[in-house]
Amino acid sequence: MTRHVLVLGGARSGKTAFAERLALHAGNRPAYLATAEALDAEMRDRVESHKAGRAARFTTIEEPIALSAAILRASADHDVILVDCLTLWITNLLIANEDVAQAVSELVAALVQIKTAKVILVSNEVGLGIVPDNAMARTFRDLAGSAHQRLAEICDDAYFVVAGLPVVLKGEPPDAPTSKIHEA
After folding, report:
1. Hey, what domains does the chain have and what are their CATH numbers?
2. What Gene3D superfamilies does UniProt report for this protein, alphabetically (predicted)?
3. Beta strand pairing call for 30-34 and 59-62
4. Are 21 and 5 in contact (CB under 8 A)?
5. CA nearest to 84, candidates 101, 70, 94
6. pLDDT of 69-100, one tens digit each?
7. How far is CA 142 from the centre of its chain?
8. pTM of the full structure
9. From 73's CA, which of 4, 7, 63, 163 has a CA 20 to 30 Å away?
10. Residue 89 pLDDT
11. Catalytic-role residue among 4, 25, 50, 78
12. Stronger pLDDT, 44 or 125, i.e. the higher one
């Protein structure tokens, strides 16, 4: 049985590196589904650096909005799909005036449908800080938190990464070589 995974953590927590190790250990034909849009020079440099660093290990697919359809297409050719990241995807949906709750429902339906590929979802946990001082930031925080809850419910495994250390929130400790695994 394919086990879908949710990997949460703060900015620069090590969550992507952990998810990459999981993906490379989980399959022979991994895809990296990137949701970032390079809207300025700094972000373009960041995206190019990330792509270069994983080029030999992953097939890169870029999709900022139509995530569910991209995952379904990728599952035909890849045995593991790493999605990085959901909070950028939610941001892209908000900017495009898309219905985030509907898009999350479509993502949940796509994940339930996929039986031949493991999907590893990476996202920033944004609900641990202070309450944002403006309506848009509060809306973003609320939408991300709701998405995380819905996805954690259907994923078999969920991890929270802090300082590069994955903490098991749900499911089994990972098979991939990692730093010491902590159970919540």
Report:
1. 5-183 (3.40.50.300)
2. P-loop containing nucleotide triphosphate hydrolases
3. parallel
4. no
5. 70
6. 999 999 999 999 999 999 999 999 999 999 99
7. 17
8. 0.91
9. 7
10. 98
11. 50
12. 125
Residues 133 and 102: their CA atoms lie apart, in Å, by 26
Tokens found for residue 140? 């973003």
CB 145 within 8 A of CB 100: no
Q: What gap in Å lies between CA 101 and CA 169, rounded to an integer?
A: 24
Tell me how far apart the alpha carbons of residues 165 and 18 are, in angstroms, rounded to a whole number: 8
- Residue 142: CB partners within 8 Å, gap ≥ 6? none
* Helix, strand or coil, per DSSP, at residue 182: strand
**50 catalytic per annotation:** yes
Q: What angle do CA 11, 122, 105 make, to 5 degrees?
A: 125
Find the length of the chain. 184
Name residues whose C-beta falls within 8 Å of residue 43's C-beta, 6 or more positions apart in sequence. 36, 37
Residue 7: left (phi > 0), alpha (psi -120 to 50), or beta?
A: beta
Q: Contact at 8 Å (CB) between 3 and 60? A: no
Cis peptide leading into residue 85 (ω within 30°): yes
Tokens 């989980």, residue located = 26
